[in-house]
Design a protein that fits this description.
Number of strands: 0
Structural class: mainly alpha
């Protein structure tokens, strides 16, 4: 897999933004830079969080921090802050850099297999299993 490297000039701009944001505590700058690189790796590869390379830190810690920043609007604010900066355009991620499954782009479904059941038809066609088992136990 590719290795995401943030250039020094880019990192200086990101660190300046993060220090101004009220919801972010940067702390140890190399660790924060490693975290941002890990998030960029996930966004660019489209991989699952658990497959994050160890060089970016523990996947669960990176994910929790990412989710917390999502909830606090840090990523949105960062995107809006750097949207007109041409030096940051290859670093920011949006729907053009995040990989999606082919079906998300309207790719045709694979041939074969069972077609998906409609919920209303599935509910009428069969009773829940726990009810069937309960009725079986209720009969002497």
């Amino acid at each position: 897999m590719s290795n995401i490297q943030i250039q020094k000039e880019q990192w200086n701009k990101i660190a300046e933004f993060l220090q101004q944001h009220p919801s972010v505590y940067v702390g140890h700058k190399p660790e924060c830079r490693r975290f941002i690189s890990g998030v960029l790796w996930i966004m660019r590869t489209g991989s699952q969080w658990r497959y994050l390379p160890k060089q970016y830190g523990k996947w669960n810690s990176v994910y929790k921090r990412f989710a917390r920043w999502c909830d606090e609007g840090v990523w949105q604010a960062m995107h809006e802050y750097f949207i007109d900066d041409p030096d940051m355009e290859n670093l920011l991620f949006d729907s053009t850099t995040v990989r999606a499954h082919p079906c998300a782009a309207g790719a045709p479904a694979k041939k074969g297999g069972n077609p998906p059941k409609r919920l209303a038809v599935a509910a009428v066609a069969s009773a829940p299993r726990f009810i069937l088992r309960w009725r079986h136990w209720a009969i002497p």
